[in-house]
User: Fold this.
Amino acid sequence: MNATLKGRTALVTGAGRGIGRGIALRLARDGADVAINYRADRDAAEATAEEARGFGVRAEAIAASIDSFDHCQSLADETVARFGRIDILVNNAGIASRGRSVADTDPGEFLKLLTVHAIGAAWMCKVCAPHLRAHKRSDIVFISSVATSYNSANGAPYNMGKAAMEALAYTVAKEERARGVRVNIVAPSLTVTDMGMRLSRAAMGVNDIHELDAKYPFGRVSVPEDVAAAVAFLVSDDNHYVSGQRIAVDGAMGG
Assistant:
């Protein structure tokens, strides 16, 4: 275990699987206790918590749906009740859109994705703020997407949700810097997760996401550990002065 985060508690939303799981495990490896939020898949969240405890830290799975303010409040309260503090908030919970044009998208899909990605993240910042402000150093990291750089067709609900999330992050960075809270964005490209695999089948016509490896930088599609490494730096003592920034984890694919 690298104990650089020892004594700190991280709350990671949507952490049972995928990128959230990778982040939770990396922060645990670096010494942080971790609250692993999940919405429905309790078994996956408990398995993530068990693996995190293997690094010698405390880790517990906590159920809550980020699209409900009451659930966000109870998630923050339960985390503090179990761990005594929140030092790091990672707004990771997210869902994919159905890949239709704006004209063909169900009206409720716009609201659903905006709520999960942006409004829910705002609620989490609100309910965690008193706890984050209690420490000399705290961090918030928003997991966005390179989708906001391209705004591709047939992805408006997702693009809108992530863009609104980024606007929130830049705002909170300015509001909280005087209180010692560093706020940053990590924006991955296509990543090897359940959601990434579904996207690659639906949008790119491949049965296996690894069929795309040769087309991606460094000969492979990004994995959750790539995203987690960026988060780990941002919340570490090595980061003294980076706040209000967006790091694209895309292998320079965009330029």
